[in-house]
Amino acid sequence: MITLQNVTKEYQKGSIGLDNVSLEVDKGEFAFIVGKSGSGKTTLIKLLLKELEATSGDIVVNGYHYQKMKRRQIPYLRRQIGVVFQDFRLLRDRSIYENVAFAQQVIEVPKRAMKRQVQNVLELVGLGNRLRALPDELSGGEQQRVAIARALVNHPALLLADEPTGNLDPQNAQEIMDLLVEIQKRGTTVIVVTHNKEIVNHMGKRVIALNEGAVHHDEKGGTYDI
Ligand SMILES: Nc1ncnc2c1ncn2[C@@H]1O[C@H](COP(=O)(O)OP(=O)(O)OP(=O)(O)O)[C@@H](O)[C@H]1O
Fold it and tell me: Is the complex ipTM more than 0.90?
């Protein structure tokens, strides 16, 4: 599903974002990415989204070869990837329904199919009865559920979550992680960047730990320690 082969990202002025990283993530896997500030987590996410270009090495995601692909293919690649951020990034003046439907309007899904799919995905995240609410009328945990629904509504093969529980209390954080595992069990590959040591150690999932741009350890059933 995801292959990185000897990937290096060097920023201008010689600053190293990633340093010769090789790793594979299988279809349907769940992996945490952990590491101190500056270890390369955001660089890795931006490379996977093709917001940044690797300086050297190869990246392949779901059959897309990043080094070879044409610029016009990028929107199709991005449809394969749902993204969730720490700060939710919802449209404040739009209802929950509209926030999720927006992702489908962009790719011109017919209205009836859209209605059904938006309802289904909001039910999956436990908000099937809040379609008309505005984001500010929801708790932080609920807002993150809306963001997850929006990321999933177009059925991406890969879900990237960048610090998804950073703004949540421990109980909501655990519930969001449980939801991400549920999504993985339904077949989506899920990658979660987090600083939440307790949750990582509690969940017993694969942990890819970065240090100074390199893979420090990569263990199934791993722990946060770096
Ligand atoms: N635009 C940039 N220009 C120059 N150097 C950069 C740039 N972005 C990141 N870096 C450097 O690349 C390295 C990795 O940064 P990155 O943002 O990927 O780390 P991170 O693990 O996501 O950190 P954090 O947990 O603080 O978000 C750091 O040394 C950083 O200073």
Answer: yes
